[in-house]
Specification:
Helix content is about 15%, strand content about 40%. It is mainly beta. A hairpin with an 8-residue loop joins β4 and β5. It is globular, with a radius of gyration of 15 Å. It starts with a helix and ends with a strand.
Length: about 160
């Protein structure tokens, strides 16, 4: 158990350092203030490849990708029906994983069809420390997914879009 946690922290540290070196500004494209809306520029792990990104207020590193038992890229693409996302999260200030009391909720909907409303699911903590949530995409189109994170005094969100 301890070696899994240490490996997870090391992997996140390496990914975080690589991302910090390779880009500037908000890493998930969210505008921090002024002009535009959250929908103007959001991360797009559409094919389930995921990427480690900073949350909107830079409090957490978040990796969100589709779970797939196959190595086939098409199998990892979002599809109509159930789609299970795996989220790996670490505090950005010390790269520690969230505490056992952390709460992760996922809200999703179609921004082009606001009358449909949004759906919300609680992400379940997995044995390896990651979180998973199953989202049901009822129709083709653009979907916005917001991962809300709360751990101790830290609260933030990570937003991405995907298109079916």
């Amino acid at each position: 158990m301890r070696s899994n946690k240490a490996s997870f922290v090391r992997i996140l540290a390496i990914l975080g350092a690589a991302l910090l070196v390779s880009s500037c500004g908000p890493m998930n494209g969210q505008k921090k203030s002024g002009g535009g809306t959250a929908g103007d520029s959001v991360s797009n792990p559409a094919a389930g490849t995921g990427a480690t990104r900073l949350s909107t207020e830079s409090r957490f590193y978040v990796y969100a990708g589709l779970s797939s038992s196959s190595s086939d890229a098409a199998a990892a693409a979002p599809a109509l029906g159930d789609n299970t996302y795996v989220m790996r999260i670490a505090h950005s200030n010390d790269l520690h994983p969230p505490s056992n009391d952390a709460v992760v909720r996922v809200t999703y909907g179609m921004p082009d069809m606001p009358a449909m409303g949004t759906s919300e699911v609680a992400a379940a903590r997995q044995a390896d420390g990651s979180f998973s949530a199953t989202l049901f995409y009822s129709m083709a189109g653009r979907w916005r997914v917001t991962v809300s994170l709360r751990d101790a005094d830290s609260q933030d969100e990570y937003v991405f879009e995907t298109t079916l």
